[in-house]
Amino acid sequence: MEKEAAASGAGLPGDEGEEGERSAEEPVVSLAEVLAESEELEKEARAVLGGSDHERCSYSQGAVKRQALYACSTCTPPGEDPAGICLACSYECHGTHKLFELYTKRNFRCDCGNSKFKNLQCKLLPEKAMVNPANKYNDNFFGLYCVCKRPYPDPDDEIPDEMIQCIVCEDWFHGRHLGAIPPDSGDFHEMVCQACMDRCPFLWAYAFTDSRHANIRCGCLSFAVHTVTKVTPAAEDQVVLNVEETEEIKKENGIDNQIKTEEEKAAHNNEPSTSSASECSEQTVKKEESTCRFQELKAKQYVQKNRATFWPHNWRSKLCTCKECMKMYCDLEVPFLTEECDTVLAYENKGTSDQEADRRDPLMDTLSSMNRVQQVELISEYNDLKTELTDYLRRFANDGTVVKREDIQQFFEEFQSRKRRRTDRMQYYCS
To answer: What pLDDT, in 10s, does the model give residues 234-268?
Structure first.
């Protein structure tokens, strides 16, 4: 959300009588609000970048589990082979080009300068393989999204709609094209699109859409966030997997406590990881379960629909990790679903924590290069400036008035003047 700071507030010549009326109509924000918004935007930027290095090409790291990615429409326009570039290459090699921001893709290696770029050599790492065969691409690399294959933002689409990323195929979808009305943004953590639900039907056993359990959360068998189904001809087609009603009730009571106990363990052991890829992989190696949870859930009655599904936080820890299920995930190319560190939330948390730790105070950098006398003098000057500026701005806050550019310029002019007077009065003696 964009906010506008108030203009200078000084009227044009002859407009003094209208100044009060205009000031009342102009949007005004306080300095504290501006600083708070700036800090929030900076925090969001750190989260989106996920700790990606803006100076070094990520190619040498191989297929990075998650990183900020871009596609260059200037170098690889529609009709050419799709390609993705890392954050550092977007700055150094494509700074003046038209780029598509892809947010994040999993297990991707930077393509910048390889054979897909006809007239460009990577400035950061010129020696690269011709192609990266393990990379996966979709229409996002040409700025097209969703089943409608439209750009975002779409100049021809006047319907306001939120774009949601599928955690399996990593494409972005309009909320109205998911076959179901999405829950409020705070009520779900991840989404799996309709096509990916068709490709991974085992997820329906975990979604468990039996209406009798619609209000029961993860303590029972209902792991997905329930939504209102959008009735369309395609969405009316359902596959109902039936079992005996008496068997369902008997088994449900038997596994409810087991799943609840496993949930408590998962809540303690499976918080989103912000560690390295190797550490995260170790965390996903779980003790083999004595029984297959998926087979137990599959014995229940559930409805398989043609729509997307929405999942709560930490739902991945509910997935069975027995040998048979892990083989099924690998065959479907979705073993990452068992890894909490694969989530976008873990990626964003890593970016926030890493960059907070790496941010250095410029004052401390300057101090480290000085001798002790210079350090004392600089700290003294800094404290004087900080104290006087705080006192100066407090007057505006107390009066509820807007700080204008002229006010800041006046402060520094007066501060420099006072500093010169203090320096002129100082006398130096030689011993």
So the answer is: 334 443 333 333 334 334 444 444 444 444 544 44
Token pair belonging to 388: 């006087």
Among 412, 273, 276, 407, which residue's Cα sits nearest to residue 346? Answer: 273
pTM score, whole prediction: 0.62
Q: Are 149 and 143 in contact (CB under 8 A)?
A: no
Cα torsion angle, 2, 355, 284, 62, sign: positive
- Can you spell out the DSSP letters for 247-264? HHHHHHHHHHHHHHHHHH
Task: Name which residue leads in pLDDT, 288 or 234.
Answer: 288
Q: Where are the domains of the chain?
A: 58-142, 163-270+291-350
The dihedral built from the CA positions of residue 296, 302, 308 and 312, taken in this order, carries a sign that is negative
User: What DSSP assignment string belongs to 203-243?
Assistant: HHHHH---GGGTT--TTTT--SBP-EE---TTTT-EEEE--
Measured distance CA(207)–CA(201) in Å, rounded: 10
Tell me the per-residue pLDDT of 216-236, one tens digit each, with 9 for 90 and over.
333 333 467 766 555 444 334
- pLDDT at residue 269 is higher than 70: no
- Say which residue the tokens 């229409």 belong to: 139
